[in-house]
Design goal:
The complex is a heterotrimer of chains A (about 750), B (about 160) and C (about 80). Chain B has about 160 residues and is an alpha+beta fold. Chain B is built from five helices and five strands, in the order ββαβββαααα. In chain C, strand 3 and strand 4 form a beta hairpin. The chains are: A alpha+beta (about 750), B alpha+beta (about 160), C alpha+beta (about 80).
């Protein structure tokens, strides 16, 4: 089932936006023609491979590469010594901030290996077998150090310290000794003690989550070619070709204009491809060897050395009156950052209570470095973890109050004019409408059988705007090309073409969207933060509007009327001057065909920094059945409602919601990084790191609630991230409902559930 | 060490290539025959992105040695559309928006083709279990299953 | 005057002050006023914070206008996946 509920502010009479055409890149992708990262090759290319640390924490005493270099067929060997040492410098791409020094040291270790899988050296050779042999011939002398991965263990004063220069930021008094706690952040309002004193009912919980990987099916891949004059080309799969260009320039000390990055099709990212791992190494190997170098990660490398998101500990305490009015909330979040500072705990803190209007609260977040891969963004980074704790506690509160969990959320839910827990005052949000949509959906009132349970949970994500460029070119036959700089992960080409077509008044099939390399379109921030349809879409619409203005101007010249006597309707200029006896409308084709004689090519480019992204809310209901014999959880039914502003292409919006739900269900039930006692990942493959498969899931029903965002030409809000926020708690709450016991430690895998059920039975 | 010479039929056409003894069928398809539609997502038979059909049987081409293709018929995603027309499965994937990034799509289509060849009228549960060897991280499988069921219905009509 | 609310990240510069008024009609003016009043804060806000003007979040936008009597909330910059 999929519903679209038009709400306030949605424009009527749209002809293209809101329909479901076939995506412009569809045929390429169902025929195997689409070229992803590993599908590109250059003549004379070498194979690049990486030697990775087998230790979770070790001093690198020495690296001897002589034997590897001497092996016939080996053309280059690089280590950390081949890269410039960068000063600590925050790079604010508008995405999660990165410290460039840390980024460079994550790409290749210098004096210390900080996790199992940390790159230590790289080789380029004429064949894969020779490259493998070369890796075996490199001798690295390590001094193994004690390691720490568990977040609370890493916070303890006697934990092994990863970085001698790391002193906790955000405390009242700067600490005198280094620790693994990179930062504390706090958000507070009102008087916590007073708030809890006013409460009739208090619930508390301690919740844990494990590190989970984005799990994109396409491993990282790139080809890099360094030319002797210092100019270079990179072909790679990422969420942003401009991001790759900037980071490569910084890490290698190059001029930005000397690098051209061409985006391959991207086989999933979910935030995990918002940084670089291979590209700087491939460039360095290419520089040393004088050949193009291709690098492709194995799945094991993807797990051991990229992503994941944080494992965490979440403490929640909530207080409410008997009528359900929440009076106080205290939330503490401890997030693994992996080897370098920068967990998403800041966003976790800001989103933790974003669905609730509570007068007194304190949210404290801890960003903690650990001997595990540096976390990367993962779909609404930080929010699902915080929501798992808060939404579980809200469920317990509803049970204790004897209230319907949706009614409790509605009573305390944020609405327009309410000041969000993270600061600003909400406008044009659709949270209450989304709660109502779930209350009214068929699933919510279906009867449950034995060993079955139902859980609901809510979620929030900010969504962002940011810098984007788009160009619209009208061809001489009246067909149109739209060019942007944002990789298409989930169907955004269709949305770009549709918004241009709507603005120009032509069928979507006359508009072909292309994604350009870094030299062929102006700068665009990467595809992430649910920003592309909003921000890049805004640039597309503005460029199309400029084209329309130009077309009207040219029509006015041809009709010899003032420009304000021409209107653009249904893809044609219409003359409004009554003195002209019924002139026929001038279509885009006609005007395009005469463009040489009316001023030259018809084309416009718009670069902007989009502000005013609308925040998104989701409410999910999940029904499960527990097998008492095995503890296995079957998800029986699932409905997800979300305020999407305006769905440009509803099918791909539904797809975003369904995909986010599936990832969240995997996070809740099965997925986790498992480390052995030496800190080595034990399940670095899809057999043992179990993502949901088709037989694990039911159909995922969606309800798209449309409360328009007035800052977007068609009312769109970001949609890609919200849907992964509620599922962790929706599943856990359904299990609570089925077995009568609160399970607070993810993943809720069969052995854990069976243990609880066995204990309950005896 | 000399490389064995392999002859096979790929998408109906005879092909020949030299294969290292350790070379997988997937590497032969991608690197020797430039058929890059089959993808490598794991190299261990867990993700199904490399699914092809060998003598009518669905296999992960990353788990089969190239040398084992000698004398066999291999069907890949590149052969699914015929005569410039998409196969009904391909068409239904597009109509149902059953792909997002598209990386798992070639493997899912080949697996779905093998399903419908073996069972023209699968239940939803049968389709879900048959396709359980093909990981998709984008779609949550909802639209994929709908597309496969719709294509099955259309193919049954064509046959009647 | 506009009313500024600063979260804990900024307290190292404000000496713990959470709310105060400044004169500003653009984000850029606001940043320079913050820097003048609390040395280091303007630079910190410019690099690390987003600015919510009456509820609408502005990132890296010096020339976004600020109306008189606006409420300004300083919040950490937001990224995403």
């Amino acid at each position: 089932m999929s519903d679209v509920l038009d709400g306030p502010g949605v424009q009527p009479d749209l002809k293209v936006v809101g329909t479901r055409p076939i995506r412009p890149d569809g045929a390429d992708k169902v025929t195997g023609r689409a070229a992803f990262g590993a599908d590109f090759n250059m003549p004379g290319q070498l194979v690049g491979k990486i030697l990775r640390s087998p230790h979770a924490h070790a001093k690198i005493v020495s690296i001897d590469t002589r034997k590897a270099r001497a092996l016939p067929g080996v053309k280059a060997v690089v280590t950390g010594a081949d890269f410039p040492n960068l000063a600590s410098e925050m790079h604010e791409g508008g995405e999660a901030a990165s410290n460039l020094r840390d980024l460079a040291m994550n790409v290749i270790a210098r004096d210390k290996a900080l996790y199992d899988g940390h790159a230590v050296a790289a080789v380029a050779a004429t064949s894969s077998a020779i490259a493998d042999e070369a890796l075996r011939l490199i001798t690295v002398t390590y001094e193994v150090l004690p390691h720490v991965i568990d977040v609370e263990a890493a916070m303890s004063p006697d934990a092994p310290v990863l970085h001698a220069h790391l002193f906790t930021e955000g405390l009242e008094v700067r600490p005198t000794s280094a620790s693994n706690v990179a930062r504390r952040n706090q958000i507070t309002r009102g008087d916590l003690a007073e708030g809890f004193a006013a409460a009739d009912v208090i619930v508390e919980g301690r919740y844990t989550t494990q590190a989970v990987h984005q799990g994109y099916i396409e491993p990282h891949a790139c080809v890099a070619a360094w030319v002797e004059d210092g100019q270079c080309d990179v072909w790679s799969s990422s969420q942003g070709q401009f991001m790759v260009r900037t980071y490569c320039a910084k890490i290698l000390g190059l001029e930005i204009s000397d690098i051209r990055v061409t985006p391959a099709e991207i086989g999933g990212g979910f935030g995990g491809k918002t940084t670089v791992y291979l590209e700087p190494l491939a460039l360095a190997l290419s520089r040393q060897s004088g050949h193009p170098v291709k690098m492709v990660m194995t799945r094991e490398e993807v797990f051991r050395a990229t992503g994941p998101t944080s494992g965490a500990v979440i403490l929640v305490k909530l207080g409410a009156k008997v009528d359900g009015t929440m009076t106080a909330a205290e939330v503490e979040l401890k997030y693994q950052a992996g080897a370098f500072p920068g967990s998403p705990v800041g966003a976790g803190s800001m989103t933790a209570l974003a669905c609730y209007d509570i007068p007194n609260f304190l949210i404290t977040g801890w960003d903690v470095v650990t001997n595990s891969p540096k976390v990367a963004a993962y779909r609404a980074p930080g929010a699902p973890i915080a929501a798992f704790g808060v939404e579980s506690a809200v469920d317990d509160l509803a049970r204790k109050l004897g209230m319907d969990p949706l009614a409790l959320r509605e009573r305390n839910g944020v609405r327009n004019g309410v000041k969000a827990a993270y600061g600003p005052t909400f406008q044009n949000i659709g949270y209450l409408e989304t709660l109502a949509a779930i209350k009214d959906c068929p699933q919510y009132s279906l009867p449950l059988g034995p060993n079955q349970g139902r859980g609901v949970a809510a979620g929030f994500w900010f969504n962002v705007g940011g810098e984007s460029t788009a160009a619209v070119h009208v061809n001489e036959d009246g067909s149109v090309v739209v060019v942007t700089g944002n990789p298409d992960i989930g169907g955004s080409r269709a949305a770009m073409a549709m918004m241009a077509a709507e603005t120009l008044g032509v069928p979507m099939q006359r508009v072909r969207p292309r994604i350009a390399d870094t030299a062929s379109i102006g700068f665009s921030m990467l595809t992430g933060g649910s920003r592309t349809t909003f921000a890049t879409g805004m640039a597309v619409v503005q460029a199309a509007e400029k084209v329309v203005a130009d077309l009207k101007r040219r029509a006015a010249l041809l009709w010899e009327v003032p420009a304000d006597k021409v209107e653009w309707r249904n893809g044609a200029a219409v003359c409004l001057d009554p003195a002209k006896a019924d002139p026929k409308p001038m279509t885009l084709e006609i005007l395009a065909g005469q463009s040489a004689r009316t001023g030259g090519p018809i084309s416009a480019q718009v670069s902007l920094n989009a502000q005013g992204a609308g925040p998104g809310f989701g409410v999910h209901v999940c029904d499960v059945e527990i097998d008492p014999e095995t503890g296995h959880v079957t998800v029986l039914r699932y409905t997800a409602a979300q305020d999407v502003g305006k769905a440009i292409h509803p099918s791909y919006v539904e797809g975003q919601v369904q995909g986010g739900v599936a990832q969240g269900v995997g996070w809740a039930l099965n997925e986790e990084y498992i480390f052995d006692s030496d800190g080595r990942m034990e399940n670095a493959g899809f057999l043992d790191y179990r993502v949901p498969v088709a037989s694990d899931l039911p159909m995922i029903d969606t309800i798209l609630v449309e409360v328009a965002n007035p800052r977007h030409p068609f009312g769109a809000k970001g949609v890609g991230e919200v849907p992964i926020v509620p599922p962790l708690a929706a599943v856990a709450n359904a299990i609570r409902s089925a077995i009568g016991v609160r399970m607070a430690d993810l993943p809720l895998s069969p052995p854990k559930i069976r243990a609880v059920m066995d204990a309950r039975a005896s | 060490m000399s490389k064995p010479h392999i002859s096979a039929i790929v998408n109906g056409d005879p092909v020949e290539f030299l294969a290292d003894p350790g070379m997988t069928l997937l590497d032969a398809l991608r690197d020797e025959l430039s058929l890059t539609g089959s993808k490598e997502g794991c190299g261990s038979g867990d993700c199904g992105a490399c699914s092809v059909i060998v003598d009518g049987r669905l296999v992960c081409s990353c788990l089969m040695l190239a040398a084992e293709a000698e004398g066999r018929r291999v069907d890949t995603i590149e052969g699914l559309a015929q005569g410039g027309r998409l196969h009904p499965l391909q068409q239904k994937f597009l109509e149902h928006a059953a792909l997002q990034c598209g990386f798992c799509t070639p493997g899912l289509l080949m697996a779905a083709k093998a399903l419908l060849d073996a069972n023209p009228d699968p239940t939803e549960t049968e389709a879900r279990y048959w396709l359980a060897g093909n990981l998709c991280r984008c779609t949550g499988y909802d639209k994929v299953i709908r597309a496969v069921m719709d294509a099955a219905a259309e193919l049954r009509q064509v046959k009647v | 005057m506009v009313h500024v609310i600063a979260p804990s990240d900024c307290h190292q510069f404000t000496g713990g002050l959470t709310e105060f008024d400044v004169e500003a009609d653009t984000v850029r003016r606001l940043i320079s006023e913050l820097e003048a009043r609390f040395p280091g804060l303007g630079d910190y806000v410019d690099r690390r914070m987003a600015i919510a003007i009456d509820g609408e979040i502005h990132q890296d936008a010096w020339f976004s206008p600020i109306r008189a009597n606006s409420e300004i909330y300083l919040i950490p910059k937001i990224g995403g996946g």
